[in-house]
Amino acid sequence: MKEHYGCEVIAVMVDVGRAGDLEVASERAMAAGAADARVIDAVDEFADEYIARVLKANALYEQKYPLVSALSRPLICKLMVDIAREYDADAVAHGCTGKGNDQVRFTLGLIAGDPDLEILAPARDWGFTRDDAIAYAARLGIPVTASKENPYSIDQNLWGRSIECGVLEDPWEAPPSDIYEMTAGYDDALDEPRSLTVTFEKGVPVALDGEDLSLRSIVERVGDIAGEHGFGRVDMVENRLIGIKSREIYESPAGLALIEAHRHLEDLVLDRPLTHFKYGVEQGYAELVYDGLWFSPLQKAFDAFIDSSQEHVSGDVRLRLHKGSCIVEGRRSESSLYSLGLATYDKGDQFSHESAAGFLDLYGLPMKVWAEREKRSSPG
Fold it and tell me: Which of 79, 63, 82, 45 is nearest to 158 (CA)?
């Protein structure tokens, strides 16, 4: 950017979890010619304001992807705009390519923060391929982890980890075992199962095995435990926002385990119409995050509905983790709608069986009227 634009560059790195050695990152930015390098610790904000929301929404893009990278982008954009204002900058830049989803997320997030800032995308606008970027860094002596031998594009944060490129671009090719860091393979997973009890208050985890913890700490602990038991991998061909299909690998042991626990608690405390309507909102919420529309009127409306739906989503869920599986073994809540007297087939059954016949007469009436018409209109 200094070569092409002759501008002063302020490097910004936002720590949203699993950021590695931030001091080294700052030194690398300064060595590359930055006028200043700012490192922001935003892990707790990421957990409390972003992870909490997608967890309450059970948000999984295409029912699989736990929105690892997509979820961090709006927070990064918000903080980039704050620093741009602090330095009275007239432009902000990102390193996204022209084929990825992140260019959309960064553009929309930055526009929402300050529509007057110019947005630069050097890697996209200069037509850099992955090999071009690696060669450029090598020519200027900028140390990067990617190489022709290790070409993977990796992004990670508190909610999980994404891996793409290289051999993974062939959907038939099995992922190499060395790409994984957060989850053990089946053979390496612990032999003894582990049970965990997650306590929720209004849809958000607040304790683990009876110990009150911050959401950040719960995500970290559940991620570590689930990962060492081999749970939390996703291998999918997803439909990117820009219209192409892409093979993606994700690790999100905490995300997948906590969403599973949350869903089962909702099954216990939400009534049927609300549960079924929320399924559609969950899909819409996941697509909204994936599509970069976090700062939008639709997101505010979704949040209002979801927060209302979580009023009684408080209680405990017991998970059993073993050899790549995460099974809900139990759930309990003071707000439970489950009635043993109505559900049991044994002694103590309180259900009015006499009412069933009348219900079926009414419920089956449209079907009866339709069947009679079909019978009249059928030849012979």
Answer: 45
Q: Single out the residue of 179, 159, 283, 173 nearest to residue 237, CA to CA.
A: 173
- The per-residue pLDDT for range 124-142, each reduced to its tens digit, is 888 877 788 888 888 887 7
Cβ distance 105 to 121 under 8 Å?
no
Closest CA to 282 of 61, 50, 74: 61
Burial of 4 (0-12, 13-18, 19+ CB in 10 A): exposed
The half-sphere exposure of 208 on its side-chain side, counting CA atoms within 13 A, is: 18
**Residue for token digits 């080294």?**
24
DSSP annotation of 50 reads I
Q: What tokens appear for 161 in the block?
A: 């980890």
pLDDT in tens, 312-352: 999 999 999 999 999 999 999 999 999 988 888 888 888 88
The token duo for 220 is 């970290």
Query: How far is residue 32's CA from residue 54's CA, in Å, rounded to a whole number?
Result: 36
**Residue 292 tokens, joined:** 């970069």
The rounded distance, in Å, linking the Cα atoms of 105 and 111 is 10
Domains of the chain by residue range: 2-332, 343-377
| DSSP conformational letter for 173 | S
Q: Beta 91-93 vs 118-120: how paired, if at all?
A: parallel
Q: Which CATH number does the domain 2-332 belong to among 3.30.565.10, 3.40.50.360, 3.30.420.40, 3.90.1260.10? A: 3.90.1260.10
Dihedral over Cα of 145, 149, 151, 154: its sign: negative
- Look at the chain and count its residues: 380
